[in-house]
Amino acid sequence: MTVAADVEVRGSGAADGEWKDPKRYLWLLGLLVPAIPFGAWGLVNLTGLDLFWWFGLIAIFVIFPFFDWFFGEDPTNPPESAMKRLENDRFYMWANLLYIPIQYASLIVGCAILVRDSMSVIDRIGFATTIGAVGGIAIAAAHEMGHRKEKVEVFLAKVTLAQTGYGHFVAEHNRGHHVRVATPEDPASARMGESFYRFLPRTVFGGLRSCWQLEKKRLARQGKGPISLRNDMIQGWLATAALFGALCLAFGIELLPYLILQAVLGFMMLEVVNYLEHYGLLRQKLPSGRYERTTPAHSWNSNRVASNVLLYNLQRHSDHHANPGRRYQMLRHFPEAPQLPAGYATMILRALVPPWWFRVMDKRLLEHYDGDITRCNVHPAKREKLMARYGAAAAR
Hints:
- The protein is globular, with a radius of gyration of 21 Å.
- The protein contains 16 helices and no strands.
- Helix 9 (196-221) packs across helix 11 (256-277).
- It has helices spanning 36-47, 55-71, 83-88, 90-97, 99-114, 121-146, 151-161, 169-180, 196-221, 232-251, 256-277, 305-310, 317-322, 344-351, 354-368, 383-395.
- With 396 residues, the protein is mostly helical.
């Protein structure tokens, strides 16, 4: 299982009394993301261009990659002496929690706009994808809440995920993915040679199956069956059903196809991020048959400032998996961790174009393992082909 790595901090080395978090107020910029539907609405009214109903996709695939390129990287870390102060500072928690009211305000107002007679079907589809983009990025906020010990934050993580119908993510991610990360057994760890389109059904249905088994075993230990309101999966489904039912009751049943569309887009965004976070990385098996402990070397990392600010440092994924309880403001950069060539916003775009993805990432993956493909998590259907292409280096 995952073991918290006791790793040395490589940082500025400044003493606690001298150090101030330069990003402290930048984290509030993440609250602009759930306001994207309001931005789309405003831009359409300001310019008269219906193109801006698609503003969510424009933001993800055009604006955010530009911001990542323009603002560059920041590999610095907070000093160890400041960690306790950072952990106890409630400002960071509220910067995360405030995502929820803005997310739900944009969802409700967005639904009211979607049912207006003046909108064409194409405009409605575009605006539903914009609302779905918020739901997808909300998963970064929910991910942070879902890792906390405080029950109220875990509950709010489920509230955040209700928009995308992915309430089971908290249980599966914490007790499934974190235990099996970077192993062939993990449905949320992509394999070398596996395209995002092959990965998507494997991770969606594999995650559902895994979560059901985890909840079934947990409830069995309490003497209960899996069909129970205590089952996290059932709670998640009921929360989404209640949310969608209330919105359809308020705005009409014609809203339902657009609610489903935004939910599908939202959880696809989560899964494409899962795809790039551990692509091809593999924890080696020990003589005992167990996997080595999770270290920063088992997650792709990125220090792109823009995406890190907007996604609550989710891109510092190496430290997150080595130390799952560490709050986002404390996550660190490790030089030995494999580094993505760009931020998540750019890498999502590459993941959707498999030849582009493989050309960039297979080379980088092999460099991480000194050219030895036998140390990679290789997709079984592509093993023969990839071994023929890269196996010679491993044999030397």
